[in-house]
Amino acid sequence: MQVRKRIEGNVSVMGFPGELRQVFLNLVSNAIEATPDRGTLRIHIFPSRQWQKEEVQGVRVVIADNGHGISSEQRSKLFQPFFTTKGEEGTGLGLWVSQGIVRKHQGEICLRSTTRFGRSGTCFSVFLPMGLPETKQEETTDTKKAS
Question: What architecture (CATH level 2) is domain 2-121?
C-alpha cells in the first residue's frame, strides 16, 4: 500500500486530543482494511471553511482510498450504531462514535464513495472549526425556603 500525505498551511483546532485521535485512527484503519495491497491511501490536511456556514473557518482533513468502495445501500446506514460491513470482525460503532466526537467539536464529517469498476474508493472529509466552541453558561439561582 502506498500512503500519500499532504499538509497545507499552519492551522490548529481546539479539542480533546484523545477523542480526535480516535476519529482519525478509525478512518485510517477503515481505509487500510478496504484498500488492496497495491492501493493508495491519501491524507490531505488544509485550512478550510465549513460548507454550511462559510464564515466558520477551521481545518479539513480528507482521508481517501481506492479500495472497493461502499454501496449506496450501505452508505445510508454507515453512521448508524451497530451497522457494520465487516461481519463478525466489526462492532458497528466506529463511525457512529467518530461522528459523535466530530459533532461534539462542532464539526462535520462527510462521505463520498463509489463502487464503479476501475474507479472505486471512499473519501471521508472531516471539518473542525478553529478555536473553542462557544457554550452557553446556565445561570443558577439559589433559593432558600422560608421557615
Answer: 2-Layer Sandwich (3.30)
Using alpha carbons, list the distances in angstroms from residue 17 to 11, 12, 61, 112, 141: 15, 12, 15, 26, 35
Under 8 Å between Cβ of 57 and 129:
yes
CB 65 within 8 A of CB 122: yes
Residue pLDDT, tens place only, 74-123: 999 999 999 887 777 788 899 999 999 999 999 999 999 999 998 999 99
Contact 115, 68 (CB under 8 A): yes
pTM, two decimals, is 0.84
Q: φ, ψ for residue 139 (rounded to 5)? A: -85, 135
The grid coordinates listed for 84 are 457494520
Dist. CA 62–CA 27, nearest whole Å: 10
Could you tell me the sign of the dihedral formed by the alpha carbons of 138, 52, 98, 16, in that order?
negative
Instruction: Provide the grid cell at 95.
Output: 463511525
57 vs 10, 14, 42, 69, CA distance in Å? 13, 13, 23, 30
Give the CA count within 13 Å in the CB-facing half-sphere of 38: 0
